[in-house]
Amino acid sequence: MLLWSVWSAVLLLTPLEAVEVDDVRAGCSTAVNDLVYIVDGSWSVGFSDFDTAKQWLVNISSKFDISSHYTQVAVIQYSDTPRLEIPLGKHQAGSELIQAIWSIAYLGGNTQ
Fold first, then answer.
1. pTM given for the model
2. 100-to-29, 44, 91 alpha-carbon distances in Å
3. What averages of pLDDT result for each successive group of 10 residues across the chain (112 residues)?
4. Residues 93, 56: Cα–Cα separation, whole Å
5. Cα 93–94–97 angle (5° rounding)?
6. Domain boundaries defined on the chain
7. Taking the domain 2-16+27-102, which CATH number applies?
8. From edge to edge, which strands make up the β-sheet containing 71-78?
């Protein structure tokens, strides 16, 4: 099942410097977040389901305001060994992040 092949760890962090008394935002999309996705890239997933997983990452990430002030995203792919695909905070715009997610190459290999 696809949900088993894609694990995401969401850490909601609110540094004191990012919170101001008059800074009121609606909902999680503009709250201060660090999203870290961990994606299974082993052979058991397959190319088609790996592309489906990337589409899921794009769909979820698109709901957030990607920037250094609101939401930063990282992606780790694992099979035989983990590989950092997108470091946390590397992309400061949603369009850059989406392009980076689509450019992640399928690792293949064993599930560890």
1. 0.72
2. 20, 23, 8
3. 43 47 56 90 95 96 89 94 94 93 95 76
4. 18
5. 90
6. 2-16+27-102
7. 3.40.50.410
8. 6-11, 33-40, 71-78, 82-86
